[in-house]
Amino acid sequence: MLALVTGSTGLVGNNVTRMLLEQGHQVRVMVRDPRIDRSLAGLDVEAVPGDIRDEQAVNTAMIGVDVVIHAAAVVHIGWTKEKLMHQVNVEGTKIIAQAALKQGARMVYVSSVDALGVGKKDASANEETPREGKVPCPYVITKRAAEDALREMVPQGLNVVIVNPALMFGPWDWKPSSGKMLISVVTKQPPLAPPGGGSTCDVRDVAAAIIQATHKGRVGENYILAGENLSYYDLWKRMAAITGRRPPWGRMGPLVGMIAGFSGDMYGHMDGKEPEVNSAAIRVVRQYHYYRSDKAMEELDYQIRPLDKTLRDALVWFRANGYLPALDGSE
């Protein structure tokens, strides 16, 4: 099988790329910079330069491909970057889909649980939960729009499966993405955790399910790839216990959150670059993004490994690759 992977330098894409190679598949990666950075160094991949917004480049990259795993996206929880997100997350996805349709290749689209309905503290959401309640920031809007565009192409013959990963941790987080949370607990030991909660999973389990989706799964269907549902406060306590750091004192209250969000918005207006802590992000972390993965377990053989193992493995990887100080006798 020849697989084209977009977003191969990101957390999901890099794990998928490595797992495909381990399974003996041929892998082609589409990268904006033709020079392979360290995330792909030493891997037996065919690197094709190009941007997913470039139709000609995408069509060239798709030649001879059996399956395309589309993991490239602009990810930012905030109020800005709407134009860029639409160009990449929506229009870029359409271009990939049109090329896959022309090639007759199966497409696995890596979306997000952020495109789905929001879960509750006492009720996990699934694929059928009404798509209501999410903070309407550009990331949520564009991921939903991309999914809608793909479903509209199914009657035309598009062979697509959509997967919706939750909050992922694990190795090969080069950027890093969600691993920033673990790094922050180690280096900054923040005193207050966000008030809501999320579903936390291992990126390697997600990658395995994505590869299963290249030949399993029903066309046009969504599959949630989630994990253990727990509050951010409990998650940060688990991280602190594993890393030997001080656990958070408690949860961030509404007033502190409002001040933090407002301050982030004001700083973004003055600086021209919206920080990660902004009013949209504060609203998001107040919610309980709890999900269940029964459908993926049944149809994609999705498995969920213990969270503590995931966090330990991620910690080991970050230390080994210079994101955190090497372990010493003080921890």
Automatic annotation (TrEMBL):
GO terms for molecular function: aldehyde dehydrogenase (NAD+) activity. Residues 3-224 form the NAD-dependent epimerase/dehydratase domain. Transmembrane segments: none annotated. GO terms for cellular component: cytoplasm. SUPFAM superfamilies: NAD(P)-binding Rossmann-fold domains. Gene3D superfamilies: NAD(P)-binding Rossmann-like Domain. PANTHER family: NAD(P)-BINDING DOMAIN-CONTAINING PROTEIN-RELATED, PROTEIN YEEZ. This is NAD-dependent epimerase/dehydratase domain-containing protein. It comes from Bremerella alba.
